[in-house]
Protein 1
Amino acid sequence: MTAYFEGTFAARETQTNTAGQGAIELPESYALNQFGGQSTLFFQSQNVTDTNVSQYRFVAGLKGKLPFLENAGLDNWEYDGYLSYSRSSGQDSVRGVPFLPRLEQTLANTVVDADGNATCTPRSIPGEGQNVSCRPLDFFQQSFLFSGRFEDDLDTNYLFPNRLTDTVVKQNIASGYVSGDLFDIPTGGTIVMGIGGEYREDIIETRTSLAGDFLGFFDDPGSNGRRTLTEAFGEIEFPLVTDKPLVHELTLNLSGRYTDESNFGSEETYSVKGVYAPTDWLSFRGSYGTSFRAPNLGEQFGGAVVGFANPNDPCRVPGVAVPFTDFDNDPTTDETRNYNPDLDPRDPNIIANCLSGGGPFGLAATDPFSLGVRGLNGSSPVFLGAPTQVASGSNPDLDAETSDALSLGGTFIQPWIDEIDFQLAVNYFRIEVNDEVNQLTAATIVNRCYNSVGLSDPTCEFITRDARDPNIAESGEVSFVSALNQNLGRQIVRGIDINGEFGFDFSTPWSETDVDYNLIVRGTRSIQQDVEEATVDGVNINDNLGEYGSPKWRLNLTNSLRWKDFGFLFQSRYLSSAIEDNADPFDQITTGFSLCVQTLGAFDANGDFNCFQDDDLNDYWVHNTSMSYSKDSYVLRVGVNNVFDTDPPLTDNNDLGFLGGLGFDTGGRTYFVNATKRF
């Protein structure tokens, strides 16, 4: 019997200081508003974030042999069991962000008496369970405008209290496993089997002071929840035939697992694997298996993060449908903006849904011919922006993700020339994931709902629209959208993995010691990369193969030379070309925000397009090299990344985002030197 113990601890402290431009919206009624009207005051914002993270983990277990089973004919049986406890905690403090309830209190309750003294009446802050002394704030102080701090520290601490967040994640595990021989197969080897079980408890707790309502922060309630997981598993391997003519090895492996998750019930998964090797230098293998993933604690218990977005309400009258017209046929009067149904690009079904409302989820009706515009039918209407409150984040009603995977492949090891090492492995894979955890955007939810017949799409359940008051232009808008995580669609990936190694030694005229050369090739040829996505029109199969971030080919080549204590590496990485949406790499541009359109116009005199967006990324190679010297426990290494200073491919597609996240080097050639010491 052997007892073992492991303990680890890690701690990290970071502080981030940022500065930028802040803004305060001052109402005309604010007693200390020196501008005298509704205005925006800009100031130098300073934010300080302190983060402390600590982690520790303890493992204790016993392992050993079970010789008493030999009396039952079971040889070589062993056991291993352990208990584990881990805890991770993180504290986050943010200073310098305005707390909106206090700001609103100051702006609403500040008064100036006849002697010029400013006072502010305190009030309870709704939802925060506290009452703070209100302070009148002079936002025009020079210190505030140029440093983001008031002359009086009490004013600064009042408007910029610390936003404290403390998150603790704990995990308890009890696990055990026994394995050994069962009996011999006359034509093969010995059947071996292993069985075991595990109990796991996951807990997450978040405490936030002054949660939400900080300028620029969503109302994040944090993650709070608990789950338990009980599993039983087993594996058995049958070496059916060994060392026979044309059958060097024929092995079958079966494994299964039963999982009971406290929030999602039970699930069974299994795997079947097989190996056939006609010789010791050629083998073929295949496997098929299923898997089960219950949503994690954050996806289940993270709470709804509430913020604001613009879901592009389809009931708002589009600007193109309300042109300026000489409505009264009097050229001496100003033109007015009036609704013209002939210019409205919306589907009649959408307009009917907006007018009638109702449906299975009882949405309020609204006016799609004037919503979003104040002063329509006048000479100077105002198009209103109406930020919508959106809840996103975890959903306790999620189902588990499931998947199945198929793999077929073979391995060849060169057996004839002793001086040359060569092996090649080729593997085909197909993986399908169902009920993926993801979330629809607020825009997709609203548009899917209003594109459905009679507002019948299930997404309508997640929308709240305020009642329309014809006397209030701002009324009748979508006021809330629940865009929580959901089980959406599936994903299918197919491809071929290629792994090759080639090596030999060669002599040199200057040394009796041979040089060892090796070439390692790792490549993936993607064949299919389909994602089933929920869209405005229903479900769409999005073929991502060959698009940004999903090249058809990925290659990694490593050349290495080793002579005595010296080493040399030359590594190359390749990404094949990509075209967004697998379509023509040049899309036509008509938007007035394009510099090309502003300069040339979208069309030339012949009616042909002038302006295009380039969606094409060319093939990309990048090379790194390094040299090393090793002696005893020391290693010295120098090298160059991106040896030829290769630029990433160019594109003007705004949907691309950050090239570096797709595998491209955006920093250019860099040099490095490092030294390590082994203890």
Protein 2
Amino acid sequence: MFDVAWRGWLTLSISVLVLGAVVAGFLWMDEHPQAVVAALGIAGAIALYCAIMVAFAWGTDKWRIWGIYEAIAFYGRLLGALTLILVGWRELGVWVFGLGAAVELLILWRALREHWQARVLCVCLVAGGNALLTAALLHATGRGDLGLVLVGIVGMLAGMFGGAVLGVHLLAGSSPIFGIARTTMIEAVRSRIGIVIIAVLVVFVATRLQATADDRLDYELTRSLTWSMAAVGILLGAMTLILSCLSICRDLEARVAHLTFTKPVSRLHYLVGKWLGLMTLNTVMIMVSGLAIYLMCMTVLAREPVDSPERIRAVQEVLTARAERLPRPESPAVIDSHVQRQIEQWERENLDAEGRPRIARDDPRLIDEFRGAAVSAWHTIEPLQRRTYIFEGLDVGRAAGQPIFLRLKPERARAMEIGDRDSVFIQIFLDGHLLVTEDMRDVEGALLPGMEMKDRAFREIAIPPQFIDEDGRLEVGIRNPSPRTGPQSFGSLSFRPGTDLQILISVGGFEANLVRGMIVIWLQLGLVAIMGLLAGSFLSFQVAMLFASVLTLGGLARDYVLQSLRYYVSFPRQGDDLGSWLMGYGPAVIQSISEGEMDKFAKLLVALLGRLVAELTPSIAAYSPIGMIATGRYLPWLTVLEAGLWLWVIWGLLLGLIAWWLFSRREIAQITV
């Protein structure tokens, strides 16, 4: 019986599934749902038995015995669970089936430990079949949400381990680089550290399917996308860092590298092969994680009807790709005149002994500094003042006939003495007409049209497309209704240029945007792998992990450190780029010494050290796509290419060459005579 060719078992498996589906369809039309579950369960058990025999048809007798054992155990467990369910003990039947599946998977995993590829494929096959049937049983007992989570967990695990096996076969080349990459990937799959991190990632992403629906749908989607993508980046980054450091250090400690380098394998081939193996594994992880995140979003979205306002708002604001349009003044002369006045005032206040300006008025650094101050002043609205902002390039929104969104985050100058200290009152005008969305109270309690917002919190306001003119231009007026004086005054309102005041317009779909975001995370993992290999090339495992972790955390916090240094110690003309910063740093040091301000001099030395360390650290978080994807903002391919250029071509190549130089000078073995 068991000598039948595998094609016969495959044909029989497909036939049983088709027959079971037909019988279940007739039973469903006759309104017998319990019989439908029984028919599908029996058909699935027989089909799974046949599928296992396909896998074991060409194997040894030992494998066939395990296949027969698994099929019989599965079939008996399924019939027992269905019997308990049909007699009314539904929860007990599901528990019997699920616990039995866990025990059988553990036995199968231990039995096939000598054949890791067969172990992965067989366990994925058996786990997938058990998960689908358990989900069907949970759905029949009214716990379909748990069944969905179970299918998500098993599906991600099966996809990751199955993809790893496929990746090993794709690396079956004759080059020593492919050989080392294949070995590295096999070791990573077998590593318990990798399994633990993958399991945590899978459970975290899959359990987001069971998130509470008490909040608004768009908020829930934004939160789920943020936490899921952050979990993918952090956990896969930790796995990559550990495996990259461990791979080299373990080879050296176990003297595997001694045998490797007796073959025609150079140090460069070795490092490139290690990196290629880790990135092949990361490719599988990123693809499966991205698919799981997308299915999670679609599952959360399906909780609302297609025509519900919450679902429409979620699709328009979160599950989309919206480009940013920044404002400009009504006339460019507004900024130019402000810059001219600032330059003239600076010339009057900064004269040398002979009455001449210390710096020429056409100095580009001076002009850039004053222009930045002018733009910031233009983004500030004084009490009872109204300012007009022009947005252009909105033709796509007008042609599509869909609303665009004004995204703003106002910041007030001071807190109110009474009332809600977290509130900001604001009035918005579209083409001169007041946009009334809410009612707010003025100082005396009279009703005043406008809206109330949270201080330093983003808010999006939908704007109908009919306000966009034929040239794709929109005029937005913002008025600060706060009184100039008194306890109710909160002073001026300000927006940070480039981030706190913008128009968002849909230019693409969510799926392509998510793909680009996952590619950027994959590029970040590539740089993390290079950092781990760099540390492992000349350090022991414990020290290498510490060094690589500090380097990675420094790359993640680089922008925050640079911003903090600006507030830690400030001096005139402190530019953002290193050259401008150093030009202003020298005079600040001389002034602190001449005036005897040793505390400031010490801070300047700390700032110099911190700035140099930050400049020598690759910026990993600068290209983080999480915030853009979670808020439905468009991530262009140009940004992805820029991330690849900086993370791989510039920083990756530089750190990789350093790792190769250090590793090529490391003495692997000592020759004694």
Protein 3
Amino acid sequence: MARDPNERSDRARRSGLAVPGQTRMTERRRSPSSARIGTVATTGAITLTVMRAMVAAADALSSELEDEGHKRLAAADLARPGTLLTERARHYQSALRQFVKDWLRDRQQMTWLVDAASGRTLSVDTAGTVGAALAADIELVLAEDQPLNRLRRRFARDGLGLAVACRTRRVAPDPVLDPARSTAARAWTLFVRVARHTDRRVRTVRVELLDAAETSTLTLGGTEVPLAADFTAPVALTLGLEQKPAAVAYGLRDGARRSTVEGFSALTPFGLECAPLVLLEGAGLSLTTMAQIANEVAGDPTLRARYQVWVYRYPVAVPLLFAASTLRADLMRFAARVEAATGRPQAKRVVVVARGPGAVVAEALLTDSGSALWDAVFRVPPARLNLEPPDRALLETLLIWKRAAPVARTLALSEPENTDGLVIGIGARAVQLLQRQTPGFRGAVERIYGRAKQQLHAPDAESAELYPEPVSQAIAAATLATDRALLALLAGSPTASPKTPCAGSPLKRILTSLRTGP
């Protein structure tokens, strides 16, 4: 006996399944945002047509892979023209792209129980997250939508899935280095897996987020298939968000450092086994060169596993000695933070890359100063200096130091062509900056140089001619003497890093040294 169609419709509605021939009516009556589970509105609602296309494309691709019976496929196998497998993979990627664009509008939900025929959500699974957890402060950007921001090459891997760049938005004013949170944008692959349910009319649809650096394949339909990835998009995203700190006299702390780790800004993702690769920005490496270095490291599997790229901006309007001292203090604190986060000693793990004046600042990390710099300024040893203990300790920190233990080597591409002219120019700027400082700051300098003036070396004729004021004259003389002594110390130091001999552009020389060095 024929059944009443209304009876079939009522029974289907009670079971939550669509009735054949009534799909369009269901779509018109229920918008994605109004779909409900009992009395609670669903989250992460996907358009019915998009969900239906996603299920159909995933089913077709899985069936084709099962029929082919391959154990493993390469990216070229999924892109071979004229094959049914290529067509299925193309349809899956197209459906995935539309699905992700819907999902990015509301990312709270990651697993759905879906009617395969209509694409309608039957229920959602609040505990169904697979892969990386998606916290509220995590931002996802499609790699295909991310501009390159000065990068010249794009490093990408072909395969299934959608490449995304992920970053954690920092909210703390002084964030602690935390391996569980990215200190720079990270390359992830977004994949949607559709699994058959015990009821063959139902599918489980699950969003999976996979770290592209750690996972290059996944199993689908009994076959190991490659995952897509884009390692340039995260670097470009980080570069676009990077804010350059404002210049501050004598390199004093400023508000722009709140988004850094002891003044170091990450350009590539944190890794427990990665050694810090520090690029010195200032009068040396340009922003464009540093961006290319970070991109090349992120795109090379060997370099990506070996290094994490950081940028440090040393103060350029101060004497070389002061810039070197500031870098040394920040680097020691930075290495201690990395060591605490990784549990791995950082002795001789940090690599510093610089050129021009930055090369002088970097190479000072590899030397012991002894008493050379102190003797260039004062005629008596520290113990006999006529100063209060705090002032004497400050001068000792500035003028007497040991080799920076965390530094393994420096890649000094070149040094300034006219070092004496550089020293004179910096000395003049140092005095001018001092004259613009607050009375309290000037008072501290005058106290040190004033009380110890009898124990200073006599100002040279050049300083005496330029600065008639005694304190300014003493500062100019000390600046010239210490910076010249620093250059002489580096020139004669057996531990100073040799210049990189490789021919070619600065970028080529840096990459060659990174690949061949320890």
